[in-house]
Specification:
Largest sheet: 6 strands, antiparallel, barrel
Distance between the termini: 30 Å
Number of strands: 19
Helix content: 25-40%
Shape: elongated
CATH architecture of the largest domain: Alpha-Beta Barrel
Length: 487
């Protein structure tokens, strides 16, 4: 079973084509053919689930200058420039200079190869998608911009090009939400976790998101409002999603108790109210409260509710880690999960490291049904209650840690690996067997040398390239630690 997404993925994407006005009188019918070609791309982009606006064809400098204010007014997250035929760079220069969102050149020619015995100039122009790409990338550099990325292929029956278009639409959805996100925060980092300290104004400057300062007491207020019927409904939801196995070897675990289930359900219901009240897209928190108090009982029993919300599209991050909350949001909007994670013990026999945390987690990427166990204590933290345990799906995985350099600027540290089946500790925490190239010792040394936060977001699939595209769009430095191809 999956948790239904309550935060829909969306983005606004603009598409315009380019051509050369001189051709229209010279080759009757060519302009109409190119308009139809542009519509094919618009349809393909729409199929990725984004909102698309077609701005038509630009064929001279005047049209480009007229298009700029339209593109800006549309509040777009991404623009595809369809290289329909040869076009002068005057149709592009002022556009790429003026926009601060990703602009992707799309060169998809109708024919996989020209019919050489029957080739005509008209046929060449209808398939000249790549011809002016060098001119456009070169002029982008002259305008002080990065050379725009290029999707190159055929208009039909090209899975590689289709995948690139879909990936860029995923990137647009991540950018759309991170720039507008309301990330809640209460409490403080654990005192000695210096890598958790985050300049909240820098988060807004870099990502666009707003940090909403909330109070732990708000949760207490909403907890008092939770009705017995809401607790019963939330308990049924939890039991439908989780197994409740017998304990393993760990003496601090037991089979989920009715009391811990009731507490988890009550706090989860309160957390839903808290998120709705503050209109939050995510939350980072750490708070202890007075020993023996109701507040401590509430703030130390958020793991189950957090995991439900994370899977529904609202990343929830413990230990007050705002940076990793944003990393989790980006992964969620790429539709690859995004669990709260750190490194656990290394297995030197088989060459992997356990990757996980004590919560919260994106349970939609679990391998099978996740488990709930009662914990007599949360290691390193106060409180007791239900803990979430699972390993993520077998196959490719991606990690994103948001580090901070000495100058205060953020940095994406990325890696790709593999999740493999096998036993994990029955401790009420997540753990996944993570394999990384070229070997686990070398990888871990390389990872830590890049200055990551000790937490990271963990997702499924190999999507480091997509996350690097997001970093580029936000002018954030990035590094991919393990780029070897997995066989």
């Amino acid at each position: 079973m999956r948790v239904e997404r309550r935060k829909p993925r969306t983005a606004r994407v603009g598409v315009f084509g380019v051509g050369y006005y001189v051709y229209w009188d010279q080759f009757p019918g060519l302009l109409d053919e190119l308009r139809n070609k542009l519509e094919v791309l618009v349809h393909r982009v729409s199929a990725s689930g984004v909102e698309v606006r077609n701005f038509g064809i630009v064929d001279k400098a005047q049209g480009a200058y007229a298009l700029v204010p339209q593109l800006k007014a549309a509040d777009l997250d991404l623009v595809f420039c369809d290289m329909l035929t040869y076009a002068t760079s005057a149709t592009f220069a002022c556009i790429v200079r003026s926009l601060d969102i990703p602009v992707v050149l799309v060169a998809l020619q109708p024919l996989a190869a020209m019919d050489y015995p029957r080739a005509t100039t008209y046929m060449q122009l209808a398939n000249d998608d790549f011809c002016s790409v060098p001119e456009f990338t070169g002029v982008a550099i002259r305008m002080g911009r990065r050379p725009p990325p290029v999707i190159l292929g055929t208009l039909e029956n090209d899975p590689e090009a289709d995948a690139e278009i879909a990936d860029w639409c995923d990137v647009a959805m991540a950018l759309h939400d991170v720039k507008r996100a309301r990330i809640g925060h209460f409490g403080h980092p654990i005192e000695h976790m210096l890598d958790m300290q985050t300049d909240q104004a820098a988060l807004t400057a870099t990502f666009g998101c707003h940090i909403v300062q909330t109070e732990a007491a708000d949760l207490l207020r909403f907890e008092r409002e939770v009705s017995p019927a809401e607790i019963a409904t939330k308990s049924r939801e939890i039991l439908s999603l989780f197994d409740t196995p017998d304990p393993g070897a760990d003496p601090i675990t037991s089979k989920l108790t009715d009391a811990h289930l009731t507490t988890a359900a009550r706090v989860a219901a309160a957390l839903d109210k808290f998120i709705a009240y503050h209109q939050l897209d995510g939350l980072a928190y750490y708070y202890e409260g007075e020993p023996g108090s109701t507040l401590r009982n509430v703030v130390t029993n958020l793991i189950v509710g957090n995991s439900l919300l994370t899977a529904a599209g609202f990343p929830m991050c413990g230990e007050s880690d705002l940076k990793t909350c944003i990393a989790m949001l980006l992964m969620d909007r790429l539709d690859i999960g995004g669990s709260f994670a750190e490194f656990h013990p290394v297995d030197f026999h088989e060459g992997f490291i356990l990757v996980g945390h004590d919560g919260p987690h994106h349970i939609n990427i679990a391998d099978g049904k996740p488990a709930l166990r009662s914990l007599l204590k949360y290691h390193g933290k106060p409180g007791a209650g239900a803990g979430v345990e699972f390993k993520i799906k077998e196959g490719p995985i991606t990690m994103l840690s948001v580090g901070v350099k000495a100058d205060g600027k953020f940095r994406f540290i990325l890696a790709e690996g593999e999740s493999a089946r096998g036993a994990i500790p029955a401790t009420g925490n997540t753990n996944t067997r993570g394999f990384f190239k070229p070997d686990i010792r070398t990888f871990l040394k390389r990872w830590v040398s890049e200055g990551p936060t000790h937490h990271f977001a963990l997702g499924i699939g190999h999507r480091a390239g997509s996350l690097r595209r997001i970093a580029d769009a936000l002018a954030i430095e990035s590094v991919i630690v393990s780029q070897e191809v997995f066989s």
